[in-house]
Amino acid sequence: MKTILAVVALLCAADAGATPMMKLCLPSAPKKCALTAESKPEEYLACFDDVTLDDGDPVEAACDEELRHAKVHRACDTADIPALCKDVKPGDGRVMACLRDHRQELSPACGKAVDSYRRLVRLRARKGRKGSSVTAVRC
């Protein structure tokens, strides 16, 4: 049950088995990773751990946003979200807002992932970008 909960949260906006992260990041994936549409989300996260994506490229920028979002869930799903945001209905950024509201109470790994995602959002706002063309419902 715990595994299912973690996978559901990681995939938050799954569409026919593929997450937006998977759809957006496959074209940017390094060939050495040998990712396919059937690869698991964790394989995508591991593949991109040491990859610097180009924020000027719309596909890579959207991929980066999805990767950071998935990393928040990877870091926060086990303890932080169930403890601090258990009554929050996923979608429309509500879980992310809850994590932000409880920033001082987050575990170090969860806090780092939330901060990384928030830096990206603020950077894009300063550059005048309204975010990517990602249509996923944010957790």
Structural topology:
Elements: H1 2-11, H2 20-25, H3 41-47, H4 58-76, H5 80-84, H6 94-101, H7 108-126
How would you describe this structure in keywords?
7 helices, mainly alpha, globular, disordered N terminus, 139 residues, single chain, disordered C terminus
Description of the structure:
The chain is an all-alpha fold and about 140 residues long. The protein has one domain (about 1-125). It is about 55% helix and about 0% strand. The protein is built from seven helices and no strands. Helix 1 runs antiparallel to helix 4 and helix 4 packs antiparallel against helix 7 (about 110-125). It is globular and about 40 Å long. Mean pLDDT is about 80; it is low at about 1-15 and about 130-135.
- Sketch the topology as an H/E string, one letter per element: HHHHHHH
Low-confidence stretches: 1-16, 131-137
Shape descriptor: globular
**β-strand number:** 0
Number of helices: 7
Fraction of residues in β-strands: under 5%
**End-to-end CA span:** 20 Å
Rg, alpha carbons: 14 Å
Bin the helical content: 40-55%
How many separate domains?
1
